[in-house]
Design brief:
The complex is a heterodimer of chains A (about 500) and B (about 550). Chain A is of the alpha/beta class and about 500 residues long. Chain A contains 14 helices and 19 strands. In chain A, the strands form 4 sheets. An 8-stranded mixed beta sheet of chain A has the order 7-6-5-15-16-17-14-18, sandwiched between helices. Chain A has a 5-stranded parallel beta sheet with strand order 9-3-2-13-19, covered by helices on one side. In chain A, strands 1-12-11-10 form a 4-stranded mixed beta sheet. In chain A, strand 10 and strand 11 form a beta hairpin. The longest helix of chain A is centred in the N-terminal third of the chain and has 22 residues. Chain B is built from 17 helices and 24 strands. Chain B has a 5-stranded parallel beta sheet, covered by helices on one side. Chain B has a 4-stranded mixed beta sheet with strand order 1-15-14-13, with no helix packed on it. Chain B has a 4-stranded antiparallel beta sheet with strand order 19-20-17-23. Classes of the chains: A alpha/beta (about 500), B alpha/beta (about 550).
Chain lengths: ~500, ~550
């Protein structure tokens, strides 16, 4: 079975689908090929639960509060820059928190410009039309920064590369309130709050204002909406079909070989999986040695586990109203604790006190507590270790919800190893590649591969290992589609 | 010693930067006074005879970063400065092996191949990258930092210089530079090398004096900071100043006196005297007062402004920014008088590399764990050390046949934890002894007979360094070398060019650009700014090729 398309997209994750939709809307014939039986990739209920920078997808979303749980019972209710105690009492650091939050959001909105387009690059030189366009983009960013005013601009340049630990503790005493913000800064990253660069990742998360959203119908609905959007635009989505090889003829992409033996011809192929996997599919020999070395050394160490606990009934948390239990619940009692929780992962050990982000979702049954737990080691997940970790998470929750353990009917743990096997994410890393300063923007995933073009003419990266990285936003997909169109290959 | 003596310029603190500024100003014809709290000059570049017959470089201990342009300008060799490069070094393993870092390139390649053949080419790639980065950064050390928020001609010129140099790199190299500046040394080494021991040996320079771990982004820059010096033009080489690090300060002091400057020791500055936003002089601890329209402080930014300046003389946001500047103690030191050279059973007899820098940390994980201890307010249970025996090359440091050993230790916190409280006060004699025991235990892994050879040992904790030298928290760089505190952010955004909110008052120590180490660059750059302001634009430390 053979057929011809303008573009083939490998992987029907939300990025692949976003890329397909963008290309199909511009009249290209697109086929998305997905190995598993379902669309969505990491945007599925088992793996993801909340949206932080939602892309328009036709799915209704509801903004929810955050509760940062305190071991002393002084839980903090947070919504964007506003904070108070769950009891209704004002929080002594609310003003300091709000000032800092607003400042971060203001700076982050500048970065938003950078996210919604291929990263800036001046390889075409400064005198070509393309070069001038790039210069004007950078100039606009520069003007945006200068418009902040001298004092704010200085502060922006000061904190841009600093760490979340110092940023927060310079403004307020340690506790669940700063703990919540630094936990957000490091979730999904192989970093602790003291690591430089964590303010930048926090700002990336806040670039749309920083709200936390629950999608109606769950993450599966978001994935479905992306697939619907792609189909409506005219793209074909075929599930249950894997790609065994990207065919390269004469240094150009010619199509793909499928797991059922068929072949699809195309002038452009977009890959949602990581760089090393993509190279293997096309054949390592097609790539320059430096590029292969860099792809092999890409920093992609998954450090987050997902735990889905099916519960008999909705749990009761001490000190929280029934409505507050439905918020995003965080166990991040202090900045120091979040840092401490990160240390063991560096040595392949489990955290003594895991940092948790939890939310009650519809899920399968009356109630599921969907938990993102960090920081965990990437490998070495024996059965014992899996049980021990699950138990320690349940124990942690018990401290805030006495009797919680007895409500758990079923536990579904996904470690970085599992996530890698399920979705092809390198190392099981949420963002496919660490969102470190050296792997962002013009150097994401590595030097020379940062604008979606991936070595061979007509081959592109469209997943989270490309700019601007992970989270369910569809931005890498859209940006890579824009690059394909700009290059005129399909 | 007059009560109200007038000078053209007063320098508070006779550290090497203060002395450098003083020399340049004196040579330009100003009447210069340097005041120093200790009875000796040099700050952290000193040679102290703490045990009869031995000389300790008891703070800084090796020389590389001292800008040769400054050495040339101030004729320091004429005043006795002689820096002898040392060769090589090694990291020893617990199981009796070692990795020797030979200065001879081929010998080094053979040694790397002995541990991991794949790393031989990796090393060439690694050192090329580091040298390229050094070459890029060196010219910036002797220039004021560019201020991107300013439209003043000077600042635009500096920015343009930066852009010009960056453009000259080419886009791929520029991207590499940005990566290098933002990576951790651990990740950078993981990218190049396979062998843990080799990585651990190279990683040390990324954490010396720093409150960061080998996997903290920004430590690749710290490594660069340690490589960008030179000895006689050999970039990255380190050497011993004959007579100890005090020889540098002595040469600067003699240069100053020949140029007509005055140094007063034994009493430090109690207060910087300000009248109507302008500096008018200093008041010392002993009550003496001196007047000058220009006053430069060699103390770190916190000490200068939070302890010796009236808060009412400073704008509030400046004070807040100074309070926020991070100066964290993370290092300790042992200076040891030895009866004889200790035994190094793992090394071949008479090995040359024993005259270099010696270490015993075998893996990046070990180094990272040492950092984790520091975060909790403890000294590292398994510390990293940078150990040298300069008396093997410099006979002036110890009596004949005997030796002097310097051991720099990472990590030791300033605020030591005890019973849940972290404080500098917890460095009791007991704690100091326990710290020394930890270090000796580690040294014993390399030299089993070390304890039997010790004649005298000086134990220096961050608290001791703070008290004696005047460095806040005993931080050797007068402030962390992270991006929120470098270039135009150092020490405070908007005040990165040595001037302060007080007219006529300048900051000339390592809290200013380009940061710490015995570089003398801040001192020289500050002198340039001061002389420019006075219209005496002399060429100060013009960039060498």
């Amino acid at each position: 079975m053979s057929a011809r398309f303008d573009v083939i997209v490998i992987g029907a994750g939300h990025n692949g689908l976003a890329a397909a939709e963008a290309l199909a809307k511009r009249g290209k014939s697109v086929c998305v090929v997905e190995q598993s039986d379902a669309v969505g990739g990491m945007a599925c209920d088992r793996l993801a639960h909340l949206l932080y920078n939602p892309a328009p997808s036709g799915v209704e979303t509801r903004e929810i509060d955050t509760v940062s749980l305190s071991p002393e019972g002084a839980h903090v209710l947070i919504r964007r820059g506003e904070a108070r105690f769950t009891s209704g009492q004002p929080h002594p650091d609310a003003a300091a928190y709000q000032t800092l939050y607003r400042r971060l959001v203001r700076y982050a909105s500048l970065l938003h410009q950078l996210a919604e387009a291929p990263p800036p690059g001046l390889e075409q030189g400064v005198t070509s039309l393309a070069g001038l366009r790039e210069l004007s983009r950078l100039a606009r960013l520069g003007v945006g920064v200068k418009r902040l005013g001298k004092a704010e601009m200085r502060e922006f340049l000061r904190i841009l590369l600093t760490n979340a630990y110092d940023l927060l503790l310079d403004e307020m005493p340690d506790g669940p309130l700063p703990g919540a913000l630094v936990a957000d800064a490091v979730r999904g990253a192989f970093a602790g709050p003291r690591s430089p660069g964590t303010v930048l990742s926090l700002m990336y998360r806040l670039r749309n204002g920083g709200g936390v959203f629950l999608p109606a119908g769950g993450m599966g609905a978001v994935a479905g909406a992306h697939a619907e959007g792609a189909r409506r635009a005219g793209a074909e989505v075929r599930c249950g079909l894997g790609v065994t090889r990207v065919i390269v003829e004469g240094d150009k992409v010619a199509g793909v070989l499928l797991s059922d033996g068929g072949r699809l011809d195309a002038s452009a192929v977009l890959s949602s999986v990581g760089p090393m996997q993509t190279m293997r599919m096309a054949g390592i020999a097609e790539f320059d040695i430096e590029a292969v070395r860099r792809a092999r050394k890409l920093r992609a160490k998954g450090s987050t586990a997902k735990l889905n606990l099916r519960l008999g009934i909705v749990p009761e948390f001490t000190g929280l109203s029934a409505a507050q239990v439905k918020a995003r619940l965080l166990v991040a009692p202090s900045v120091a604790e979040v840092e401490r929780s990160f240390n063991p992962a560096k040595y392949g050990d489990l955290p003594k006190q895991p940092v948790l982000e939890m939310v009650l979702t519809g899920g399968t049954g009356p109630s599921t507590l969907s938990i993102i737990a960090g920081h965990v080691p990437e490998n070495g997940w024996t059965t014992d270790r899996r049980e021990s970790f699950t138990a320690s998470v349940v124990e942690t929750i018990e401290r805030f919800a006495p009797g919680f353990g007895s409500l758990v009917e079923e536990a579904d743990l996904l470690t970085p190893e599992d996530i890698s096997a399920m979705t092809g994410a390198p190392g099981g890393h949420w963002h496919h590649a660490e969102m470190g300063l050296d792997q962002m923007l013009t150097t994401r995933p590595t030097v020379g591969m940062a604008r979606y073009r991936f070595g061979v003419a007509g081959l592109y990266l469209c997943g989270a290992s490309a700019h601007p990285g992970g989270d369910v936003t569809g931005a890498p997909g859209r940006n890579s589609a824009a690059q394909v169109l700009a290059d005129g290959v399909a | 010693m007059g009560q109200h003596d007038r000078y053209d310029a007063i320098i508070a603190g006779a550290g090497h930067n203060g002395l450098t500024t003083a020399c340049y100003l004196a040579r330009a014809g100003l009447k210069v006074l340097v005041v120093e709290k200790n009875d000796w000059i040099g700050g952290a570049a000193v040679s102290r005879s703490l045990h009869e017959g031995w000389t300790y470089s008891n703070c800084s201990y090796v020389c590389s970063l001292l800008r040769r342009e400054i050495v040339r300008d101030l004729d320091l060799p004429k005043f006795g400065l002689q820096v002898i490069p040392y060769e090589g070094g090694a990291t020893f393993t617990a199981n009796g092996d070692y990795f020797a870092y030979h200065s001879d390139h081929d010998a080094l390649r053979r040694e790397i191949a002995r541990h991991e053949p794949r790393d031989v080419d990796a090393y060439d790639r690694f050192s090329q990258t580091v040298i390229r980065q050094c070459r890029f950064i060196r010219p910036f050390l002797l220039r004021s930092a560019p201020d991107p928020t300013s439209f003043k001609i000077n600042d635009l010129q500096e920015l343009l210089y930066l852009v010009k140099r960056a453009h000259g790199l080419g886009s791929r190299e520029l991207a590499e530079t940005l990566r290098f500046w933002t990576m951790s040394i651990g990740d950078f080494l993981d990218e190049h090398f396979e062998n843990d021991l080799i990585k651990a040996h190279l990683a040390g320079s990324g954490i010396i004096g720093t409150g960061l771990g080998v996997y903290s982004p920004g430590t690749a820059y710290v490594l660069l900071h340690h490589y960008m010096g030179d000895v006689d033009g050999a970039i990255g080489a380190w050497g011993f100043a004959r007579g100890g690090m005090g020889a540098i300060s002595k040469a600067l002091g003699d240069c100053l006196e020949e140029a007509g400057g005055t140094i007063v020791t034994g009493s430090g500055v109690d207060r910087f005297l300000v009248e109507g936003c302008k500096i008018i002089g200093v008041a010392l601890d002993n009550g003496d007062e001196y007047r000058a329209p220009i006053v430069a402080s060699n103390m770190d930014v916190k000490r200068t402004f939070l302890e010796h300046t009236d808060a009412k003389d400073l704008p509030e946001d400046f004070t807040r920014a100074v309070k926020r500047f991070k100066i964290r103690g993370s290092s300790g030191k042992l200076n040891i008088a030895l009866d004889a050279l200790p035994d190094f059973p793992a090394a071949p007899k008479g090995a040359n590399f024993l005259r270099g820098d010696l270490h015993a940390s075998e893996s990046l994980a070990e180094l990272e764990r040492a950092y984790d201890d520091w975060k909790e307010g403890r000294w590292s249970a398994n510390p990293y050390f940078d150990m040298l025996i300069p008396s093997q090359i410099d006979p002036t440091m110890a009596p004949p046949g005997k030796h002097m050993m310097t051991v720099f230790v990472q990590y030791a916190p300033y605020a030591l934890e005890k019973d849940g409280v972290c404080s500098g006060e917890n460095w009791t004699e007991e704690a100091k002894k326990a710290f020394a025991e930890t270090v000796f235990d580690k040294i014993e892994q390399v030299c089993p007979d070390i304890r039997s050879k010790v004649v005298h040992a000086e134990i220096r904790t961050p608290r001791d360094i703070e008290r004696e030298v005047g460095l806040t928290e005993g931080n050797i760089f007068q402030g962390e070398l992270t991006f929120d505190q470098l270039l135009f952010n150092r020490p405070v955004p908007g005040y990165a060019n040595y001037a302060t909110p007080i007219e006529g008052m300048y900051l000339v120590g390592s809290s200013a650009h380009p940061g710490g180490g015995v570089m003398a660059a801040p001192g020289a750059n500050a002198a340039r700014e001061i002389l420019k302001k006075l219209g005496k634009g002399a060429a100060v430390a013009a960039e060498a090729a």
